[in-house]
Automatic annotation (TrEMBL):
Protein name per the record: Pyridine nucleotide-disulfide oxidoreductase
Transmembrane helix keyword on record: yes
Top-level division of the source organism's lineage: Bacteria
Record key words, sorted: Membrane, Transmembrane, Transmembrane helix
Residue ranges crossing the lipid bilayer per the database entry: 36-62
């Protein structure tokens, strides 16, 4: 392919609004420490490699973008759910062998001993690299989570159509 053909094809690709971009879109359904950690590692790695990254947090994944110590729920069921489902990166435990918080403590201690960054540091790195954090509006309504308990650097709650649009433009789409 000669240079003029390559430039012409690049021009057509850039003028197509539905063209796939150098972008990663990810659904974060899990609120488990190990899975949120993996999601943030992938997101920061992709962002560091100059990819545009969008993370869509839904159901239990919303725990990762909640401010610590903030109560949620307006009705009885919502308040009960909030008591059992404390949000914030420091409150989430591993998907296996949590044993009432002992697993979380051990996991964090082992990560620190091995020189692995904390979830909080990883989250801040993702924000610094421009990773877009989108909370799921429907999940927030079902779980009675108010926008006021979400971290300051997340977008306004969005519906699944917004995420589908992001994913349609992406080279890579993941579900964690």
């Amino acid at each position: 392919m000669d240079m003029q053909n390559a430039l012409a094809q690049a021009s057509v690709a850039n003028s197509n609004p539905n063209a796939v971009k150098n972008k990663l879109s990810m659904v974060v359904l899990s609120g488990d420490l190990d899975k949120v950690f993996a999601a943030l590692i992938i997101a920061t790695g992709a962002a560091a490699a100059a990819m545009e990254v969008t993370m869509f947090f839904t159901f239990w994944g919303l725990k990762a973008i909640q401010k610590p110590g903030k109560s949620t729920g307006t009705g009885l069921m919502g308040r009960m759910l909030a008591m059992m489902n404390r949000g914030g990166l420091n409150a989430i435990g591993p998907s296996r062998l949590n044993m009432g918080g002992l697993g979380r403590w051990m996991f964090k201690l082992m990560m620190k001993q091995k020189g692995v960054v904390s979830l909080e540091e990883l989250y801040e790195s993702a924000i610094d690299l421009g990773v877009k954090m989108m909370p799921c509006d429907m999940s927030m309504k079902v779980m009675e989570i108010d926008s006021a308990v979400l971290r300051d650097n997340v977008t306004a709650p969005v519906g699944v159509a917004t995420f589908i649009q992001e994913a349609a433009e992406s080279k890579i789409t993941l579900f964690i």
